[in-house]
């Protein structure tokens, strides 16, 4: 394994304390973001009103023909 290469991953492999500090920083930033995120249980929706009316038919009679 060549540890003399010039890359970010090889630098973190040679400096595990720095890798752990970056991990803690990312975790802390994620926690702060989660706490500041707006949360809603029920999303805001437009309320619509539906009106239902009933008509009373009081003078109707049922047919009196027998069923065959």
How would you portray this structure in words?
The protein has a domain at 7-38. The longest helix has 21 residues, at 16-36. 41% of the residues lie in helices and 0% in strands. The protein has helices at 8-14, 16-36. The chain has 68 residues and is mainly alpha-helical. It is built from two helices and no strands. The mean pLDDT is 82.
Q: Report the sheet-strand fraction.
A: under 5%
What is the total tally of β strands? 0
Q: Mind describing the biggest β-sheet? A: none
Distance between the termini: 97 Å
Q: What is the N-to-C succession of helices and strands? A: HH
Shape: rod-shaped
Report the total helices.
2
Q: Tell me the structural class.
A: mainly alpha
**Proportion of residues in helical segments:** 40-55%
Unreliable residue runs: none
The overall average pLDDT, rounded, is 82
Rg, Å, rounded? 36 Å
Main attributes?
single chain; 68 residues; mainly alpha; 2 helices; rod-shaped
Write a concise synopsis of the structure shown:
With 68 residues, the chain is mostly helical. The chain has a domain at 7-38.
Topology of this protein?
Layout: H1 8-14, H2 16-36
